[in-house]
Amino acid sequence: MNQMADTSLKNVLLTGATGVLGGRLLQELLLSTQCNVHCLVRAKDEAQGLERIKEVLFAYDEAGLLSNQVNRIRPVLGDVSQPQFGLQDSLYRDLAGLCDMAMHCAANVSLVASYAKIAPVNVGGVANVIEFCLAARASLMYTSSFSMTGDKLYEPGFVLKESDLDVGQGFEDMAYERSKYDAEQLVHAASARGLDWVIVRPGNIWGDSVTGCYPLKQTKVKGIYYEMLKSLVETGLSFPSDEDFDITPVDYVAKASLFAMLNLPATRHCTYNLTNPAPITYNDIVQQMRRFGYRIDEIDTKRYFEAVQEGRMMRAGKPYRSTFTDLMAIFYDGSDCKEAAKYDTSKIEALLSGSNITCHACDHNLMQRYLDYAIKCEFLAPPKDQFPLAQISDASVRGGGYMESLYDADLSQLKQLSEATHAASRTA
Ligand SMILES: NC(=O)c1ccc[n+]([C@@H]2O[C@H](COP(=O)([O-])OP(=O)(O)OC[C@H]3O[C@@H](n4cnc5c(N)ncnc54)[C@H](OP(=O)(O)O)[C@@H]3O)[C@@H](O)[C@H]2O)c1
Question: What does pTM read for this prediction?
Fold first, then answer.
């Protein structure tokens, strides 16, 4: 297989370059190809757009090795949810005349927003990118998610194959999951109109496996997994869970996605599960953090979640809350429902065999790199400064609103969800 060597590629449209994955993909495009990268970005003018893009790019490229490649980045001020990205006809036509490929990463990644709120970006945006690719005769990489598996996540023995799409999954819990599934359907339907596409389904995207870098300060959404680490460190409390917990390094997702696109037509109309082929469990993550030096005590699951829901997890005299605990409070319903799905990665492994692209194992070295980086960015306190830890109080001190930072949430909807959850747990 071709090893990142398609020199015919001249111009690529990239969406989401100010995000976690898009930023790392931009770095990969600049490193591994000669092409110009037209980045669709939201900003007041091109100069600000370029600054926003550079902020994330150089969060990954800390040494500034790509400083002399910035001239290959072309900011295009636009919005994926708008027809023609909101561009003037002539600009849109010029862009379509140039681009050979589109790599679409932009999305609203809120886990709690309603379908009405995220569909214009996550589904409508994909429809707009498809129209662009057809007009440009460009191939498309669409970034879906392993969460398109919907409620099959909870079905014991279920394995999501890369060729699977409609497996009878439902999407009661999360509009985000449904939006990724609906968008995959749109991409498939565009085959009949002559579109060449590849779909990638990343797992939980964590930092770069070589440097540990993750744009913790430069992106709007930090990522729930890093919020989870922060809550574990700040509270020193956890609950037991032997469910699989995917950790997929961002460099693997970027390299594997680009490799698939540079190896069209062999990969044409293929979908790849970009999850870690060797997942670990949540318990393993907690154990790795202890090994790093953090104190994390395990308490009973019901006790943990009820304390979070009722504002009885106290730290330094105040109820502890974070994006992670707020989300947990919403989704915990006291049931024994466990995440059980597995993800088949045999097609991507076959594609990458013979290349030098591999997914780093979720081992102690990787976690150490991630924690070192998060400490360096002052996102996490180092083990010696972890204190005071949280304690569970028996007195209920409920109250207070949800965090405004909670993933672009529809707060009124969240409150209803939360009230329903509390009511259910009270009657259970
Ligand atoms: N993170 C994960 O663990 C994960 C896992 C599986 C799949 N994915 C998928 O991977 C892709 C990238 O995710 P991410 O984690 O990199 O997300 P992210 O950090 O939140 O970045 C989202 C990007 O999309 C852009 N965007 C949002 N709405 C837009 C609009 N209307 N017009 C133009 N740009 C818009 C954002 O621009 P602004 O900076 O202007 O907001 C940002 O650049 C998404 O498709 C996501 O569903 C992510």
Answer: 0.93
